[in-house]
## 1
Amino acid sequence: MSAPTSSFRDGRGFDRILVWITLGFLIVFSAFPLVYNVIMSFQNVDLFTLASFDRPFVGLDNYDEVLTRNATQIIVRNTAVFVVLSVAAQLSIGFALALFFQQRFPGATWLRGLFLAGWIMPGLVVGGVWSFILAGDFGVLNWLLQTLGVTDDKIFWLSDPSKSLYSVIIANVWVGVPFNMILLSVGLAAIPDDIYEAAELDGAGRVWRFLTITLPLMRAQLGAVISLGIIFTLQQFDLFAALTQGGPSNGSNVMQYWSWELSFQDYRIGQGSAVSVLMILVVIGVAAIYVRSTRHEHAA
Amino acid sequence: MTIRTLLAGTAAIAASPAFAQEQVELDLWTIDDPGEYHYVMAEEYMAANPEVTINLRTVQFPDMVNDLARAIATGDSPDITYIDNPEVALFASRGLLMDLSPYIEASDIVNAEDIFPGPLASVSYDGGIYGIPRGANTIALYYNADMFEAAGLDPDAPPQTWDELYEAAKVLTKPEDNVYGLAFSANGNEEGTFQFLPWVQMTGGDYDNIATPGAERALTLWKAFIDERLASPDTLIRGQWDSTGTFNAGNAAMSISGPWEIPRMSEEAQFDWRVALLPVPDTEAERASALGEGDNVILANTDEPEAAFAFLEFLYDNMDRVWNEFGYLPASEVEVVDPKFPEAYAVFEESMQYARNRGPSPDWPQISKAVQTAIQSALTGQATPADALAEAQETISDVVN
């Protein structure tokens, strides 16, 4: 770094510049907000002290407060249900579709491309469309179910606290499936055909080939898709804002939405930060799994 | 900052008659879009006062508090802004708003005694007056007179009490025709508090005294509306505007909402719609209603307090126009000549006398949240109305003290 122009020639200084640019970017845009957030979670912060560093430290009060609220238990449980069900459904449907489009039929690639439409739509638009479908009194889904004779009574998908979380999950699965499918399609395409042919010659059936060839060779992709799925699902905010606002009565509230509510509706910003710090810990764990699964990929 | 101070200094030294017509710039934040109140008024004011330039900026209503707090923190706040009335105490308690009382005392145009008690309370904090209401609104009971007649109810005698409201809702509910008796909003946001608090206030309670038998009775009645399907379960996640939309479409026979509905209702509702005062718990009970709309306030760090107040005076002076031109009620004693929708106006104008402020409290958002939580947990059956209100009271007492 002392003489960047001269070391440009031997290429070593250039490496360092690249590293420092990346590192600088990460420090400014990732590390600083992260650390700032952690600090705020130990302070008493309201709207008007947001910009100053001189705020009273309150130790673990914020954590104590958010962990002992009546709503905490239900929100943590909702978050777990939301993540597990969303990721499981996104993965299995996405994988099934990827396998389906792997069969080379006319128009397969086109149709697969069209599936991405759901992925590129803004979350609020998706939420708006699903709120039409799931509306209680005049929703499309209720009309369909009643016409088909599945149910006589209207189902209040969004305003019944025992159902509202599942409504958001349905919409979230719809949003996440295309991404899962594309990523897994890429992995499937990378498996050489001759392995399957050899296995077929040896007498391995479809199911056996799937279990002994496809699954093991897709390990890295599956690991990556699952960890990314968990991270994306933990970031899912728009659908909650558009469909239920976490309600009724926290029936569909999850930690990411709660953190925003605490910070920007109640203006208990320290507590909102505490919730997001707890979430960061979970995401770090998931990210570690993701890094491990991609490292495996590079080694292979 | 330094340049501005320098300029101000030079201006003071050079102060002479030649500089009397010095250009004044005022920054104004509003929730209006071009063509609405603040834009129209600012244009008229600038045309009449060429030395004043008003720079308007539209801020979305839900973002106003956040944006304003951020602007104050970075020293970039406007001179004048609109604030929703329960938030005035939030800013005033932190010394961020200019106390207008000395200006009002000296003013020939603004007389605090002419402002209705509810709106005046919403801008008062700790002995000071920190804003001037730009108008007001309140809620009342809209009803479909045709449905009343069809159900054998007298359309000239709308429900006066809670019991009558309940009975009417029962008679008017027709599940086979997709008609609910009543539409209102128990949404888990400020709208839920806005709709519920008047019911508590009619029974003698208020935001800081909410675990009362009266409040419990109100919440139990709300729960009956939902449980007996006299109102849609979607009431829990729907705002007033969407709820009243179902009334306009003929899917609810009555609706509780405010005057902002009238322009749309007069176009969409294909029936004889009328308005009545919000029913009271018993015939002798005192009336109450919600107080909505917001206030024009001046930020404490403005460079142009006189010019800013002069514009506020102009706004106040045009209070008689707000009903016909902008769709809300005057917040002070003025005569509205030839009001549009005269029957509805008469009801809302009377209702305005009973409109009560939410708060004031510097921590209103937290109090409101506690009330919303109580409403929602009781209506979903997670807690009994009494328990839900007791828990809200506990939270609110913590916040207030």
Note: DSSP finds 17 helices and 13 strands in chain B.
## 2
Amino acid sequence: MDERPISRVLIWLASASFLFLLAPVLIVIPLSFSGDVFMSFPPSSWSLRWYASIGQHPKMIDAFFFSLQLAGAVTAVNLVIAVPAAYALVRLAPPGAATLMSVLTAPLLLPTIVLALAMLIVAARAGLLATPQGLFLAHLVVTLPYALRIISTALATVPVAVEEAAATLGATPLTVFRRVTLPLIIPGLVAAGALSFLVSFDEVVLSLFMSGPRLSTLPVEMYHHVESRADPLVAAISVLLVLFTLLIVIVVDRSLGLARTFVR
Amino acid sequence: MSAAATAQGPDQSRRGTTFAATTLLVPILLINAIGFMLPVANLAVISVSEIRSSGAMTGGWSIAKWTTVATDPFYWELLANTVRTSLIVTILTLIVSYPIALCLHRMSGAWKSILLVLVISPLLLSSVVRTYGWIAILSDRGLVNSALAALGAQEPLRLMFNQNGVIIGLTEILMPYMILALLAGFGRLDPRVEEAAATLGAPPYRVFWRVVLPLSLPGVALGSLLTFVLAISSFITPKLLGGGRVFLLATEVYDQAIVTLDWPLAATLSIIVLVVFGLALAVYTRILRQIG
């Protein structure tokens, strides 16, 4: 489409910026193979000791499995709630649908620190601090807007004519949804699910406010570790997390195209 | 639905649709109300609640926290420092993100997709991981100082546990948002306009200055707003790279809420974050009206 060659100056500038953007992720990989007791770069020796030492941190492992369960539960409930809501807003278009949409996506706009404090105070009163229920509700609040937005976009691209054709042929609204609409928005559901999962799994601000010594998520445990000690343990965990994230990204990219999910 | 419309009056069907929509929306509205509306409204109440020195609420009202914040120079300095840091971060993020966005806009095909994925993927990675990466680069025994030492530097450069570290880390962390906003803004940029300017004899820098940059301003404004707002509310990176020596509104909200347990003060400070957020939004709307 664009035939003008990209100027060399621009390519150099962009490359330098790219290096800056990826530097912190790239440096973690060699650091995770450090043989040193403390963090220093470049490491003076190489080993797999920090990967092995993950096993000696039961709190990290517990936190990982809790984060996994939490993100899984959040994703599942998210889709169950967001699909009917998106359908109602896009297809049934009740009066004030646009306003409702902005109200329901408002949690994304609000500075996270404000939301986190607001939730902490209410959760403390309700006895939900450092409980799975409290963290579940908090994560649901911040992931629902993403799911709602992605599924609404997916629904809007399904031609109404296809649904009407099925309805004319005698299918009930539920059947039309199940047999026609739902299969057509599967890519959107995958994207919404994956994003909800990753947002929940990586969420640290809300979790930090809502968790306690008894119960915390993996990012919170990592935060506390980095805050108190400078060793390569977190690098080893990070590399595993990068691989894990990459796996999910590839799954989404295969089913929809990552770029299309975000740029729009 | 069309069958229902013919069987009943259109008015009745309309009411039926609204009823169905309401039913489907109940769960999400409930969660929004309980998990979002109620807690945020409660913040305003808490900020004017009276507490004992133990942190327990007395049930009475007090504007003590607001007067403290208004009269103690520490909090004015905190506000000024937060706004200053966020502005510096926004400008730096814009400068380093612009070339990437422009490059991506001009590319096409497989390379564009790959680079776009590279821009987005840091967003999917916990900010704890990325901040940790910056510690490995900026600390006294990190990449930069090891390189400087190898070149013969005697003293390590202080890049962490101060304002510099926070600014560098935040700039990188917020880049993906800026790049995506800029890319959306570049949609108005027609390569034929640039070509026309070049054909008429404008050197590349003038094409950029007179054509490309003005046309991309809406994207610049949106990206800057987004970056600024995220910068004023971020605290993981300032906490870890500032090492407790950099005081910002967001880190203070955390300390008051979790360490000191002074919820009214934390609530007051977080409302100030909201006010700054609202002002930024107002400035953005104003600027957008001028350039649009």
Note: The CA atoms of residues 25 and 83 of chain A lie 35 Å apart.
